[in-house]
Amino acid sequence: MGRSLEYPKRGHNTVNRLGKNRGVYDLEIIHSIINGSLVLNVSFAPSPDDEFPAILPMIGTMASFENPSAGLDEPLDCYLHGYVSSRIMNLTRQAQEAGKPGLPVCIAASKVDGLILAISSFSHSYNYRSAVLFGYAQLVTDLDEKQYAMEQITNKVVSDRWRNTRLPINKAELSSTQMLRVQINSGSGKIRDGPPADDKADLADKNAVDTIWTGYLPVTETIGEPVASSYNQIAVPQHVADHRKNFNDRVREYSDACVTRVKEMKVTYGDV
Question: 19-264, what's its fold?
Fold first, then answer.
């Protein structure tokens, strides 16, 4: 079996706290967290004069226009969807016009899988999966790549949705929508999927152990029953039903695996 591709560790992407146990750099794991998150938080510097950084919730997905068949375990770009005259689009345009590689951005995604309840409030925690990507955003100007990116993002929202919408995209929609391609420079992930981890002193306190409930509360993000619009004329299509089932099955499978690990793993004292 070949070695998995990893993002190189650099100063800005190396996981420091508990990095040995929780930090991950594997492309497939990181890209899966990004693609499994419905919202990505994209941060950037508005200008040298702004006191605070800007952060936007955006829809995005990992993909490759140059290599459409690439898997999540291969190098990919991150495509982001936005309005043509939004601030991030204007700043990206200015950066490219100034001869820079693009607008430096950080893309973050987080998924909470469970709540960890311990004896001490200090030892409470979450089970979670998080990922960050660092790269340079560029405007997608090629029409074929733009429509490719729009299709990828539409199908991230609901699998196979693109071909089940009104096509082709009209000129007004194309002109008002701007796609960003973020060429990834580095990335990292962080995962906790273990049981409560109280300090030895608390575990030795019989009164605390006997009177305080400790454990794990699974948290799952699921898609509910489809609700038709007021003007809808047809039954729920198969691609929507399939997407809901597959999404919920994946969530349940991961949650069940977390529960199993929590039950089977030994406590690492103080590893909150």
Answer: Pnp Oxidase; Chain A (2.30.110)
